[in-house]
Queue: 2 jobs
Job 1
Amino acid sequence: MWFRNIIYNLLFFWGSLVGVGAVSAAETSDNSQPNVLLIAIDDLRTELGCYGLPYVQSPSLDQLASEGVLFTNHFVQVPTCGASRYALLTGRSPRNSGVTRKNQAFYQGDSALSVNQTAGAQTMPELFRRSGYQTTCIGKISHTADGRVFEYNGTGDGRDELPHAWDELATPFGSWKRGWGIFFAYANGRSREDGSGIRDLMEFKVEQDEELPDGLLARQAIEKLREYKEGGKPFFLGLGFFKPHLPFVAPKQDWDAFENVEIPPVPHPEKPESAYWHKSGEFYNYDMEFEKTRPLSREARENVRRGYLACVRYTDRQVGKVLTALDELGMRENTIVIVWGDHGWFLGDSALWAKHAPLERALKSTLMIRAPGVAEAGLKSAALVETVDIYPTLIDLCQPAFRKTEYPLDGMSLKPILTGEETEIREAALSYWNDAVSVRTQQYRMTASMKRGKPTKIELYDITENPDPIENLAKSKPKVVEKLSKFLPGEK
């Protein structure tokens, strides 16, 4: 089945690249085409009720999952924000792009996007814009918090991070005044990056959703949907929520909601033997109300997990508002909705509080797609899928007239999975981190550092036994290592 899907995609993209690349946007404004609502949620691992976790309060996302397809084995290309989003938006694997870590990939270094418009679209929203779609960015879709290039301290020229992609950058700043201010926000316009010195790990004191940035993002998205309702073009709306990214800040009600909820303890809080373990530097740089130890005490771990879940609840409520507005405006049946977590996050598992590791917890993230008339409602797919699959899937579903991309797309369309026609599309999913490549099959995850095309530091874990790196099986299962090594990229 996976081989047939490869052939399908090769034929599809050959036709799209050769046959329709020259169609102009002016010729393609057709409001019968489906709209796209892409919701990106920062640091959202599969910590949701729909993934079988009853202690999580995520009714809006759970409802969406029941109306579309929930992917239980979705893996990002890189376990860090910018590089993961680079793969999503360009459709390129790190194997070909070389982007295996850096957050500034869009505008810095050999992988930077050209400020000049190229013959083919450099990014997903640019392709849709060139096909006559109205494109709007609200929040964090690329790496920066509002689509403009500034440093954390506010310096920079503010150029578009994705050249030629958006008709409008519509992120509201509120009292935080700028992009990174709203991303690292606390109550009352304060920010981790405003020079005040505030760096609290958690804050749950505001009463209203719109006293914090994600509430403002939801309100702005609803206003934009109302504008789209009056227009005659299809739209591509990128809506990027900030939470549950650090710091853990949300309204008080979301913290209080877990007061009497029994949150399971960290299953494996001890530091593993893995060569890919790190010290969770960003997390430990925050000020904590409890003793800052490595590892954290059990009580501290429970508090931090509660904070993460409170932020998930807050974001879930904002997603719910936007989806309700979509329904009330009568736009549901012609709008594809994708919810995507840009990577996973260690919640104390393996004594880690971060991403930045080529291991299961950091590489596995949320993905759900509701495509009216296409997706089989309520389907839970265990197919191995990658973030780079989203771009070709949207082309397949929307059939934009302009399909020429600056580089070939490395993913595979998920449409056969959405319809229930296929149950798998590949044998293994690949992810990258610095010089490490991680191969995930249905049973195993093997991670190896590549030196001159040869694997070193090989770690093999049976994921069906445990998602955490407890027992390295590389030496005891050489045949499995040999089999999975065939998926590793060789020396270029």
Note: The chain has two domains: 2-427, 435-492.
Job 2
Amino acid sequence: MGNHKIEIRRRNVDKILLAAEKVFAEKGYAGTSMGDIAEEVELPRSNLHYYFSTKDELYRAVLLGLLEVWKQDALCFEMFDDPRVVLTSYIRAKMNNSRTRPNGSKVWANEIIHGAPLLGEALDESLYEWAKMKEAKVRQWVESKRILAVEPSALLYMIWASTQHYADFGHQVAVLNEHQPLSDLQFERAVQTVTQVILRGIGLEP
């Protein structure tokens, strides 16, 4: 396959995944058909099946693609050692994804809430070791007294809950904001607030 065809295929797959993310978020797995996704991405259904033969395959690709995005967000754990730098970078990346790709977070949350029925063992394989590596980094900070003694997993869960709230409960956030999405300034204040509370909670000044 030539480079041009590979690039076209990559762009089409990306478009399909984003469209599927939106439809799965709005209708859930059971309520979504391949026809719905084809309509959203404005492709003939036969073209959609060329890239993804079943709804199950497409749904898994959406979920695993999201996990890869979130792993990219967490590369700061490997790139930096300063807990203030790592966590400030991580929180901002997570918040930005909640704002730019809220549908993805909703699809992920719905799958997990239902016990990961379609991801199954793939969740263990994709998530477990990755999360344990992040916990080990936090544990190192605690043991070297760079942050206050905290349970590493609880700190990660707190960050995930605080940042993904702006995606999963975006409608509620808008309702409480005079039925308007957060402005750029409001969003930046939210990022700063979440960052400050997390950092101060582990003994760091933002």
Note: The domain at 67-201 is CATH 1.10.357.10 (Tetracycline Repressor; domain 2).
